[in-house]
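Our consortium's second objective concerns turning raw sequence data into structural hypotheses that experimental partners can test. To show how far this objective has progressed, the report includes one record in full. It was chosen at random from the queue rather than selected for favorable results. The single chain below, 492 residues long, was entered without modification.
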Amino acid sequence: MRSNRTLLTCLSLAALFTFLFNGVGLGVNLLLFEMVAFGTLAGMRRLPPKRDVLITVGGSMLTAVLVLLYGSSLAIFMNLVSVVLAVGVLLAPELGALHHALVLGLSHLVAAPRALWRSMPSSASPVLGITPRGAISGALVPLVILLFISLYSASNPKFEELMDRFYAWIGEPSASLPFVFLLGLVLSCFLLLFTRNERLMRWASAKRDALLPGTEQDPVLRAEVRTGIVLLVTLNVLLLLLNVLDINHVWFNFSFTGQYLKQFVHEGTWLLSVSIVLGALIVLYFFRGDLNFHPRNRTIKALSYLWLLQNAVLAISVAVRDYWYIHHFALAYKRIGVIFFLLAALVGLALIMQKVRHQRSHHFLARWNMLSVYLILLVMSLFDWDTLVARYNVAQREKAFVELNFLGTLDNKALPYLILSDLQLENLEDHNANLIGTERYAGWRYLHRKEYSRWINGRVERFVKEYEQRSWREWNMADAWAHAQLRLAVVE
């Protein structure tokens, strides 16, 4: 009987999913669906009050609220990640590791439809008294209802008007309806039906935070210690030289003369970021096993700490490069992403130091790095970046180089900030030309102000018309605010 109730709950949740999402985008419907889904899990007593459950379920609900507020792609992506992690954690809350939860969640995504199929009734065992013949008869009921609605609508204009209002509220029936219901059913099974992959559980349960001494021979370890000392001394000297040069020329004595800063920031930033990752891998290689327990590892430990600290200084240098780039060329997605990448890198370097100091395993690093990256991505999704970028760049248009090509690609919710007068655009172009040189700015790569105005005005008109056709189910606050502002601009 319990499996029957679960099956009926899955079908009900799939019907709710179809009602909320068929033919519309994401907005308030996502929050409503997840409130019902996690509320159902709470009613089934499948939400134990454990740390990872609170973090992932809380992250799911937080990002659903952020989709309602901003409708941003990052919030939607993080909601998807949070739901997968939450399901993975609920499958095995005792593991306490988000990277294991991710693997379990993805495995469950494949196994859940099979679990649903196994729970389907046969002709000999009807569910809740419904036989296969009864299910077929029941499936014909809505088709008969739709037939008579069509007949009555054709014969009575008032009835047709009433039905049109009803369809406008719930959404027009479409050919995609069965596929949306099927998708909702798969998602409902993913959320409500629990499966258990014993092989993955054995793999995950065997992982431990603490390292155990092995059987590696002492002469081999001594040779590895000598190799590590020579390598880390050399690398520390090289990195010290690079850090001194960066502190002198990037932190305190940087001068901008109109150059593009491509090598300074684009290539330099990513190359230095790769070097930070490689530097961390070097330490992980030497402290992968019995070297952690060798009595003569004090020197190589000290060199490793120094190397990791110097890599942290290098990360700060990358942040300073990114600051100068933003200062002179305004905000862009990658420049924002670099900041959060460096934050994750600094946390990772600190965790490696903890691993070396306390003889921790790679599982310890994976567990805490996964948690830190997830939390950092949640922090990133707290902000409406398109609107922030538009506001900042427009405000800095006569202080930094602001590229009209990029402004024109920002999301519709940023459109109210992108409408600039002819005088503002003319001043922006004059400042850009003075900053990098008139000949370079007059090249083909930069959008002219008149083309920008036509582009933005066309986007405003299309957005206002398209927004008025939207359903309440895909409402979000950012688009609603932008529409209210832009509608006035179109009327004027």
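The partners drew two points from this record. The chain has three domains: 2-205, 220-360, 385-491. The first helix runs from residue 2 to 21. Both points have been shared with the crystallography group to help prioritize constructs.
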